[in-house]
Amino acid sequence: MTVFFFFDVVEEDILFDDRRIGRQLIFAPGNSNLVAVSDSLGRITLWDLRQKLCIHVWKGYRDAQFGWMQVTDKKGNSSKGKQSPAVLVLAIFAPRLAVLQLWLVRRCQKIAVFKVDPHSRLLYTPPLWINKSCVGDHCSPVCLLDSSGNVFSPIVSLASCLNEDRRHSFWTPELRKHFKEQWRNELVSKEQLDGLIEMILSIHRVDDFETFMDKVFSNAKNLDCRLTCTLLESIVRRCEATAGEEEGLDLVGRRCQCMIQVVNFYAVIAALGEETHAGLVGESEFCSPLDPAVIQALNEKLSNILSLRNPDTEGTVLTLPQFLGMFTYDASGPVLKSDLSSESLASAGSFVFTPFFTRLPAHRFGRHYRTLLPLPAASWVLLLCSFWLDSVRSYSVSAEQFLCHLTGLICNQEDSEHLLDIIYKSVLSTHRIPEAVCLSEFVTAFCVSLLDSDGTVNESWETIDRRVVCWTAVCKVLRGMYVLQEFISVCKSVDQSAPRNTSEEDISLRNVLQASSDFFVEMFCRYFSLINPPASFLQTDGNEWWRPTLASLKQQFPFQFSSDSLLLNLAWQTASQWHFCFANVQLLSSVLQHLRSLSTARLRHCSSNLIWKTYCCHIARSFFCFDSEFFDKRVLEQRGRSIPFCLYQLITFCLDSLVQCDGNCAEAPQVPCEDFLYTFMCTNGKLKLAKTLLDRTNELPLANKRNVELHRQLLLTLLCACDSHSYSLGSCSALLELFPERFRGVFFKDMSVSISENEQSFAAVRQPRVSYLKALNADFVEAAPLGTIPNVELLLELCIAWDIDYDILRRQTIVLMLCNGDSQTAFQLLDVVEDHNAMADEFFQLACQFVLCRSLDGDIEISASMRSHLSSKVDRDSLKRTLSKKLTVDILERLVAYVDEVTPSDWNNGAVLNYVKKSLGNLAGR
């Protein structure tokens, strides 16, 4: 009923056409006459039915779900006799973006974005249908059901929807500029300070408070402590006064209160340094802040500060003196004491990270803290690890957030190995399975960051030693987790009656370790496959750098971990990346040479995540199927000749791998790239080609449909090589030798074997195969003696197998015979031509391309351009053929007569044909 009414108001073709298919259509509640429609192109359109007008279009929302929301005043004004206004909001859930967006309809403005589970489902019930001109005034609230069964209901205040100007709701460039000008003033007056506080009080949204915090502490070392604390205190008072109006203000208030203590800590540290430095200046003309006396004096001050703490303070809340008492001075500045317990470190981490952890973006995390406090990155990592291991679950912080922050502190650090050692010790110091599992996830995240970070991964051979050191440090973390697993196993065996504090899933850490090792191996191989080796690498076998690395990695892992697994992954990753650098071809060849020496049973058990059959298919697919954007035949022809043995090994390994696959293997390989096979043939020659490609495919099981097509593709590429004249088959019998007896029946007769429901028909690539067959047919015609018909039995079978009209080659044979001077045999073949119109077109082109010969016999010479066209652009110079053949006037007249007889009277080229007749008549009467 809704659809009938809608089509009565708006024509159907306004919304949908041949390309757009409607997916969802929901009317807005009330008498707004609005409707939201989604289509198959990923667009959501908002229509006004009364005006038949499209109001707004959202693009890029494929598979989106949406519903209407009515935002009203929660306090209600019905007691005063006033009806509370309702504002329409469109909620759009985009699963591909993993966000839920709220759009204010009156201004088509996005007012809120929520990060949600991409596997959620939007729950919404449209408004009640009343009649053809009215829809219910109310609709059910929009809810989002995630994959865990939790229901999320978005909330938006009416004030944020009705506030049109939103004055000072965000930091405009003018306001930010004015704030910075007053902030730089060293002597801020009371009026200027009041102005800054007024700016802060004009902020209404939580996000704007966060923006202000980031702006204030973007350069914390240059802050004035008194001014900073005053501003923070004003924010706290603002949050306490308006805590009930805006969500999240209580969190901002707590964050600012802790920030006041942190700023005071920095001020105390700075004051200690200045005071001690000033006291020692009088004793000597020059005193460095790194002097041992200065460091001792600063440590004494820190101890005195620790004694000032109030013992009546609650023990779980760390005060500023307690926090300062955890530090000591060394040559690099304040550092954490080495004898601190894990509980003290967790309290220190809670003191610093609690007000920021849930709100500060991950990409600003490391920069923010390194700027705020002059601590080395190692201290921050130690604080953060201890804080998370002890207190993170109480703040509902996911492991992913923690890993992002921790990775942000480590990336681009000179002491990455030292930081990883800290994590390694943190794992060993805590005997709790969930935290160890999360740190395993951190190791994988850190590996990814090394690969993706421009600062740590550059394609330079000189940095390889540094990378190996970093990877070794990562291995130490995994090794520490394994030691932790052994410790837990021993504890369980000693006291089996002890209560289990963790679930059975957490106990199985060994599975997590095995998965982490497999992932690490994959990342390691991908990492080294992207390296550009030096130019001398082509003269070496690569053993001087990657085999020692594999040996050291194997020693780091005490559990089941073999170099065979590393070699398998290294071959896989290098094969997928080898087109970036041809030196990797030799590396891959040496790896595969080692793999070929292993038994099949051993290869199948090298890795728990790699099935040998699937691996073989993938390695063949990675090697054979190249992207045309990266593949360059000229580069392979130039550099491929220097490593033909490596290419031969790779081709042989891939085809041998396909032989080991069963006929019903689901991961069947794709057909090899024509350009690659063609270049390989031209590089290696016919004998090696037949040995490497065609003979190997004879062993492929015919039950696999792809294998038959693979063999056909190899033969097709061979015909392409004939076209380039790298070698000539010589005769039809030589070509027949390339077809094994067991393949002929399947190859030429049973076409149903190679074409399945989801594969393209051979007609899709008909034109390239026709050109190959024409080139081969030209070879046969040229080699046949005059007065004889070439033996083209195999070409006829190929045309039948590939669904190509053999009449095309027959017409080409006739034209080539005429050009060779064998006109009698050529005209005899006209009786078996099926398409006479096409034959007439070729004769007409032949007659129109003649030029007058100055010889005494009066013959007509065929132009070189026409001869090149007739022989399908065959390079006749390389075949040592005659560049010019002669046709007599009688033959040309017979051709024109044939054309005149076949073509209709109103033929389009009739005028040109009459001109040719006239020219031939004048030539005959000469």
Automatic annotation (TrEMBL):
A Gene Ontology term for the protein's cellular component: cytoplasm
GO MF annotations, alphabetized: GTPase activator activity
Boundaries of every Rab3-GAP regulatory subunit N-terminal domain copy: 15-123
Residues of the Rab3GAP regulatory subunit C-terminal domain: 549-619
Major localization listed first in the record, in broad terms: cytoplasm
Domain of life: Eukaryota
Localization of this protein: Cytoplasm
Entry keyword set: Cytoplasm, GTPase activation
One Pfam family recorded for the sequence: RAB3GAP2_C
Family named by the database record: Belongs to the Rab3-GAP regulatory subunit family.
Listed PANTHER family: RAB3 GTPASE-ACTIVATING PROTEIN NON-CATALYTIC SUBUNIT (PTHR12472:SF0), RAB3-GAP REGULATORY DOMAIN (PTHR12472)
Designated name of the protein: Rab3GAP regulatory subunit C-terminal domain-containing protein
Organism from which the protein derives: Trichuris muris
